Amino acid sequence: MYLYTVKKTPNKIVFYDGDCGLCNRSVQLILKYEKDHSIHFSALQSEFTKKYFETNNWSLPKMDTFNFAEDGKLLSKSEAAFQVAKHLKFPLSWLRIFSILPQWGADQVYNLVAKYRQKLVKSYCHLPTSSQRKRFL
What we know:
Blueprint: E1 12-16, H1 21-33, E2 40-43, H2 47-55, E3 67-70, E4 73-76, H3 77-85, H4 103-115, H5 117-120, H6 130-133
Parallel strand pairs: 1-2
Antiparallel strand pairs: 1-3, 3-4
């Protein structure tokens, strides 16, 4: 467990369900395709996440919700996914094109995938490299 002071807290954090195969695969996809290796990761179940949300006076997120905090702003669901795509290399960065859809529509698709995420992708465990491990909070 890592405890950060406010000054040392990373400014880009993906919050994901650590028990979800689809979520863990998404983290691996981000690790593989991100542009500058500046995104950090925290399982929704972690003490860091609980303290981070408490410190920022945010409600704890639901386990089926992908969240991304950047520069003190919290995004959820499709909005979070589109913002993360901005930090990915081509061709995955082009996924942002779907942000032109109305957010309520994109979130409906997100909600459908989230509802069946445990059935879509079975449990997945990947051991991060030593340099990647430093980015898990």
